[in-house]
Amino acid sequence: MALSVDSSWYRWQWRVRDGLPQSPSEATPLLSPEEGAQNYNLAQQRVVFPNNNVFHQNWAKVSRRYSGNRICTTKYTLFTFLPQNLLEQFHRWANLYFLFLVILNWMPSMEVFHREITMLPLTIVLFITMVKDGIEDFKRHRLDREINCSNIQIYERKEQSYTQKCWKDVQVGDFIQMQCNEIIPADTLLLFSSDPSGICHLETSNLDGETNLKQRHVVKGFTQQEVQFQPEGFHNIIVCEKPNNHLNRFKGYMEHPDQSRTGFGSESLLLRGCTIRNTKVAVGIVIYAGHETKAMLNNSGPRYKRSKIERRMNTDIFFCIGILFLMCLTGAVGHSLWNGTFAEHPPFDVPDAEGNFLPLALGGFYMFLTMIILLQILIPISLYVSIELVKLGQVFFLHNDLDLYDEETYLSIQCRALNITEDLGQIQYIFSDKTGTLTENKMVFRRCTIMGHEYSHQENAKRLETPKELDSDSEEWTQYKCLSFPARRDQGPATKRGQGGSQPLRRSQSAQACIQGHLRQRSMGRCEISQPPVAFSSSIEKDVTPDKNLLTKVRDAAQWLETLSDSRPAKPSLSTTSSTADFFLALTICNSVTVSTTAEPRQRVTVPPSTKALVTSLEKIQQLFHRLKLSSLSQSFSTTAPSDVDLGESLGANMPTTDSEERDNTSVSSGSYSTDGGYRSSTWEQTDILGAVPGASLEEVLQAPALSLAGPDVCYEAESPDEAALVHAARAYSFTLVSRTPKQVTVRLPQGTCLTFDILCTLEFDSVRKRMSVVVRHPLTGEIVVYTKGADCVIMDLLEDPACATHADVEKKMRKIRAQTQRHLDLYARDGLRTLCIAKKILSEEDFQRWASFRREAEASLNNRDELLMATAQHLENQLTLLGATGIEDRLQEGVPDTVAALREAGIRLWVLTGDKQQTAVNIAYACRLLDQTDTVYSINTESQKTCESILNLVLEEVKQSHGPQKPDHKLSGFRLPSATPPPTSGAAVPEVGLVIDGKTLNAIFQGKLEDKFLELTQYCRSVLCCRSTPLQKSMLVKLVRDRLRVMTLSIGDGANDVSMIQAADIGIGISGQEGMQAVMSSDFAISHFRHLKKLLLVHGHWCYSRLARMVAYYFYKNVSYVNLLFWYQFFCGFSGSTMIDYWQLIFFNLFFTSLPPLVFGVLDKDISMETLLALPELYKSGQNSEGYNLLTFWISMADAFYQSLVCFFIPYLTYKDSDIDIFTFGTPINTVSLATILLHQAMEMKTWTIIHGLVLAGSFLMYFVVSLVYNATCVICNSPINPYWVMEGQLSDPTFYLVCFLTPVVALLPRYFFLALKGTYGKSPILKAQKIDKLPMDKREMEIQSWRSQQRPATVPGEAQPTHRPGPPAPEQSFRASTPKSSSPVECKYKEDWVLPGERSSGDHIRDDPCSRDSWAKFSSGEHLLLEPSRMMASRAYSSGQTNSNRPFSQGSHRRSQSSLTI
Questions:
Q1: Catalytic residue status for 433
Q2: Is 595 within 8 Å of 748 (Cβ atoms)?
Q3: pTM beyond cutoff 0.85
């Protein structure tokens, strides 16, 4: 098949010349150095001149405009620290409020306290914060200094050699030389690499956490350098884009002296912070330095978020301000009225210097301000500091929870946002990614289809059903030690010895995390092993057991490849043999996998092995075994030898060898393929074999060629687990990727022959195209072949039109292959497999050269480079020939079904937003209990806005009829939405509703302004699945639900595509999984597994919310109760602003006496035990409903505070009425009973009593007496003209004081105690019931919990299979699929589905389609149903009518895809 690009080429030429605007650099081209003055636009692009003798003058002029490489992450300098820090602290309005009070108190006419005393609380708070900020900034300064003083080799123009300088001396345009394992100091364009192929390997773990190596290529034209790079010979000018924070995007070009240009991109940019690996020397020119580097532009610290309690608290503080205003107004009016009762001015009313008295109105205004100063602690300034301390304590216990610690990765939970811990207990919606979040992101090859023939790989499926595989390294070594051949001797330098024997050296040893001062060890009984040497290389990912039927096809394909030659090129055909060869060649070649060895995993293999050694005859191998007489070795070798040759022929001496098919059947059925997949190389050395036959030399026994079979095994470093899985699968069939360079890739065929393909071009995978292509020259035929792999929804639309076939038979066969492949893809999707299509195309030499020129021009363009590159890819990737498809399993993480079930019981709505195929996501949803077997699932797939609106109306009407009238819950755009759990209208159980939509439908919803209807529908749904969604759509959905429904949202993901979703939610959680750390770095919390979410929310979330909510309410109560004592006294002192309590006692009250108990309460209190919270997830709903702290609880606390303040003031007042005691003797009992009441109130709120709680409460009360006794004994004239001298000592000798201190707290707390007693006795709250259960003995507690759960759990349908990892057949899905309507005729059809349970019918049996199943709108699990409202529908694909067996049941009960799409 040849590509004709003539017409498209001329269209492209027209677009480039006339349609696209030229970049500034193209409009004003740079002049060569010899031409003197140069014109360039530094405002829109960056121009880099090299720092050498030729361009030194230009470099000196331009480099001043660019940032140097010195970094400074500190906020302050020595001179700006004090003013800048104070300015930042006074951005908090609470600090401004107290500063205003300090200024007021300095005015003589409004002075209440001593001026210094008023300043003390604010000064202490500002000073503590200033010290904390200063220490943090000093640490940053030390780190900056250490980084800036790091060493690097910089080219010195005068000396014309590289000299060692500091990082801070690097400037844009400098040439720098980096060695292996050095960190890159600035963003550098790669110009030279010691690697012969111009490759430099990077480890980007400092940027994104990914440990797998990335390849960077030398700029085109600089690859073939035989000697060291000479900076003085570099006469080019670099033009690139301005600095930005896109790590994976970079474009520019290099202008040569002859005005020609060479384009480059991110593949040639070495980013600051990355580490050079596997490359001895690399030289580059600095493009961005210092704060303009991409790493520094992405360096953002933890984000500040306001929690829901904090937002609620700010509202309540305004209420407190209102209360304060009323109290001050009362004092001002009372002061004016009281002064107005005097006929003459009283003696204490002192006139000014001129003898004038203040008017009553002005005196009232001054008294208003004086009352603000007097009652200032009504606004709790200490509350903010206390909340920060409490959250630090909560984060400490979160971080040290061993249940949230992952022993495999040595990672504990990370808390990156310290101020929203309580929001974990109020989550109502969770938005989750699927791949890597719900699943392991360990891609396992399961099935494939080639040219319409499906290969199920049943033996491989059985292997994967084992309970739990060993660690990859441990398993390999265990099998190696169990091999039945002579004892191993010297293992060479690639191993290390220990007490347990020799094991291969690992790439790195993970450091053990230090938890609470102890080194965390792995659990007893497990062997201590290191991490896998490379990413995506665990045993379960690498090992593939071949399908016996496909083995025969592969051998025929290998033999067919040997028949090819330059003189007889392969004609385009649809034969199975040629397509099988191309299929496995595509799996091996079309990727970016790096090859390395197991002995040195980071050393890339670039030189293919000797072909002579690989084509060793089978007779020599058999002679080897006969001479050594090692039958056991032969048996072991048949299990673990590489599949370079046919196993049945070469190694099975006692195995029947009648024909190839029989040999294949025997090799599979007899178990000769181990869990290694049949391709692991043997690792014994020469000494092992020589030791078996004393005196025999290696040359005599093996005659050299056979040694290649014992060479070191190779391992693959892939950037994604999908690529690794496909390469391992191809290797299982002996299509082994041996080496890869930028220009060549070598593949070893089953018979041992090595083919080296020249790589002409590689089109990398991106999320827009959803495919990858590689253009190679076939070494046997010389043809130019394009191999493409990608998503089936994309590849199927790029295939060659069968109608263009020259023969009718070819057209028929093409249609048949496409239909069968699509049916297999649907089958894979129902099984929850990730699907990829494989295709190819043959180009003529002329067409390729024309396209290559087209591509080079696009690469050299600075503006619109991405669009031009996309256009070139579209020109190449069309008219493809389908080869087949693969099915890769991404298994569920451990504990995901239980976690999802628990979260749903807790009242949390869980939405899955994924870019995967719809049927794959639906099947995973059933497997993880997101959808239940009895649910009615609506699937909406349409691109038309009108159709989407019609379907939404139809489904809403249908659901409302099923669920009846709803109880309003959420408010949405002016109307009320139904509650989360709608009650059924009758005694019969109403099936739950699930919703499945795709990305195209989401576009129709957003563009058609259908968000309100969509959200109204989702309120009836227990779960929502959004498939084929982009990162932007994920973010938009989260914002839509968060803002419209005003609910608390949480997003969880593990990849870079989840960052926008994580940042949009109230709480973002990143999973440190297989896709790097970009999600973690953008998150508020980071966990290792999805199952940790269960305890994080249900236990820690509940505790954090409950503690903080009750602590905030207690703080408001405490301050209002204490301040009211001063307010009540104003009625008896003429509203003069006087106090009956000493100033220092007022300060110490909040600073010492009542500060510590709330902190201990907020950090350590547990209202319900962890076991009960995990066993009864519905207890989490108390946090969702904000039962701990809301408007009602706030005003109840205010009322309680007013009542208790009245009691605490008037009982002592009535006791000492008409006595002759002084003012402080009257105030001391009031202060004492108030403190006792407030502390006892705190004790009544505590649900957990420990020694710490008791000591803190008792210590606070005793501290009051100790401080008061010492202060009253030493303060003689400190408060002239009156002083508290010996007041407390006198009170302790008075029996009345003890009586007052005993009766007053009892009377004050009696109503609250009575209320709590009634609530505990007759309350029906789940929290109260759970607290009662916690007090029972262990056996009775378990019985009560089981009884509770049995009452809460709905009765199961008889005969219904319980959900497992792979549930039984679910209730049918109601599908609504539409695209461009072809007809508007309404269609009504009844459908009744046969219900098939697992085991009733074999997997090969089919259910016949109902005649109207393809024209119906929905199908239900039982009975008949008629959908009333017609709508315009269409087929999703033209070939969907060819699917006749799509409704068959499948083994293990995967989700059944509905074929009820309306086709017109």
A1: yes
A2: no
A3: no
